[in-house]
Specification:
The strands form 11 sheets. Strands 1, 2, 3, 4, 11, 12, 16, 17 and 18 form a 9-stranded antiparallel beta sheet that branches. 28% of the residues lie in helices and 20% in strands. This is Glucosidase.
Length: 893
Amino acid sequence: MNEHSRQAERMRLAESDSPTAPWRLWGPYLAGRQWGTVREDYSAGGDAWTSFPFDHARARAYRWGEDGIAGICDVHGFLNLGVALWNGRDPILKERYFGLTNNEGNHGEDVKEHWWVTDGTPTHSWMQVVYRYPQCEFPYAELREMAKRAGRNEREPELSDTGALDENRFFDVRISYAKAGPRDICVELTATNHGPDPAPLHLLPQFWFRNTWAWGRDDRKPTLRASTRDGWRRITAEHGALGRYTLHVEGTPTLLVTDNETNEVELFGAAANPTRYTKDGVDRYVIRQDATACQVVGPDDTSEPGTKVAAWYSFDPVEPGESVTVRLRLVEGDGHLDAFGPSFQDTVDQRKAEADGFHQTDLDPKRAAVVRRALAGLMWTKQHYRFRTREWLDGDPAQPAAPTSRKNMHARNAHWRHFDVADVISMPDEWEYPWFAAWDLAFHTVPFAKVDPAFAKEQLLLLCREWLMHPNGQLPAYEWEFGDVNPPVHAWAALQVYRSEEVKDRKFLAKVFHKLLLNFSWWVNRKDADGSYLFEGGFLGMDNIGPVNRSEPMLGQWRLEQSDATSWMAAYSLHLMQIALELARHDESYEDVATKFVEHFLSIAEASTQFGSGGRGIWDETDGFCYDVVSRRLPDGHVESQPVRVRSMVGLIPVLACAVLEPWVFEELPEFGRRLEHLLSRRPELQRFVSRSGGGAMLSLLDERKLRRVLSRMLDEGEFLSPHGIRSLSAAHREGLEVQVADQEHRMGYEPGESRTPMFGGNSNWRGPVWFPTNALLVEALRTVEEFHGGKFHVELPTRSQRQVTAGQAADELVRRLVALFLPDHDGRRPADGKRIESTDSPLWREHVTFSEYFDGDTGEGLGATHQTGWTALVASLLTDRRHTGAVGESIV
């Protein structure tokens, strides 16, 4: 491999440190699902899934975005290019991925298709996706019926359970994008028949504008004109902001022109449609043979203006093992004089080689493949996210009036009228979570920093910008309810991203720090109701982890003081302290701020251990663990409190609240050191949270004795330590337990797999499975302990094994168990594939790695969302972390 191939993508990145830089203008920003989102919900009852269902999506214009299969769009979300298919049997064109809604799935929403992002580069100079399309009629009704019959204790029915994939009767459609330049994109679609018989296939790449003109706010309408003149098939796009683009289509496909407008006659029984052609025009023309549904561009002709065009390629049949290819080229301006000449293949070959050079690593091939796939999926889940809450709440002038329910002060997102975003944002999952989530996004930036630090920093700053952050300092949680609360991990992520670069970006660190000061104040003012330094964040992203819904108020004046909320805030204080100290090295005005966060941390630490008339802390000496606490103030002024004795991840979060003060802190910032010493001399009871060694110190919510007790449970294979990482609930609760919370009895237990409760939709489970984000944080905490103690802090791993290892070796072992989920075992199977079709012996399935939302606490099978190369992409960071003390693939136990 030559030096240019190794450096080309890095050179493009150097030219593209702005989110709107030319090389970033086009990317995978088209959503995998727009229907069923809050943005498209204009119902009175606020049921997004039924307000805009899948069955409407083919014929109803979206208000805020678009969706498609393996598609791309410009950074503003105006012009879109995606893939549509038809196998000659389906009742509708395959234009978007199908899945069950929250009410249809037996474990909440669930996509029922197979596709994999196989490669990519951060400027999107090269991208590749494989979509697996059945040759039989797609079993839409059967999948819905199977899920309806299945209970919460049963597995989710999958596409393979219908027989649709038997005997490999499917097409693999490989979609490749290679940029010859920032505004010159070569597109190749190659479909391969893997079945035993010939089968028909229709490929219909589609080119369309997002509907921006039908809402009464901007009546300017872009145009698409399809032409067959001069022996070319091409589509010319004209847009007021984008200018002119030309899409060349190779060969002689039939060009079909329609409009991205709602078919109001078919969907809503209107007497007539406002436009002649509608969004489903191509579908009706191809499948229903409705000759009036769209314009057909004849020989040597040019169409009238439209806003959606398809190029219809028909292959009937495709022989077994045969592949067919369609090529397109999207170019700014009037087009390319030799669109499919040698430059096309040269571009594809060169960009693929440059991607190889960019991802080159000294990892062994199996681990390198996992890293490359994880990063490719992470980069693909960038989406253009547009949502103006004020307009959504009030309704549009050219549409029916907004329901009166939206005028209620308690309506969804009613207090977020300032929210006004139109940016590319990293999403948790392309289909199941096609909207940002605050703590997910923070975790995404850590692996992003490996390949695209500019984007990672931009994302962290974006969530703090005035058009997203609430004026009171709260960060928006996610679109279902911006006012919900996610864990405050933004400062941690900012530190990780900052430290990952050789040339430190202090300007970025200062910008994010100033905004997080507002967010920290919001937490203190809103989530510590009585100033006790014990916090009540809400569900904090861990959905059903408790016996009660932690987002709802307690009954009878009871208050829930949360072990995790309190510990997150202790960790938040330390992270902001570390940022302030780093900034103080170059600006002494930050030194006092660092002292403020030390004091706040120590106050939280003291409160977390207190007992007595003032209340109970989260630490429980009897069990050697941390619990949530419920408390209430009695008429006589005394406080009654009781722990919620469920051993879960909320009791492990205190481990995360630790930070090392390196010797340079006391050498370069003596005033900080003097202030800390003065505080400790004045309040000697706080000394237990500060350890010293070699001129440095470590601050920790748990002193060494308590940390050892918690770690003994965390590293116990009968409790938290699974073969695949740390469980979210102790396996000691396998038989279930009854726990009293606020004068009421509740029952819950260890559930290693799918959720058995409907809490938070029932589509995720924190009562036993392994989750990557919290595991990655626990690994980081053990590394911090190792950093301070220098190999002198030992733990038993596993508990009761009498095998002593250092904290760093314990971190290595957790990493080994986590990354092994994606690596073939002695039978050649990946634990994460579980019992799904991916675990079969077929190389067609074995070649693809699935990155799930979470993993069975016993078997390691991937569960939940199936394209969670958001935070599960942290596996790339774990595999490439140079701090491990031994080989990642070798067990030390």
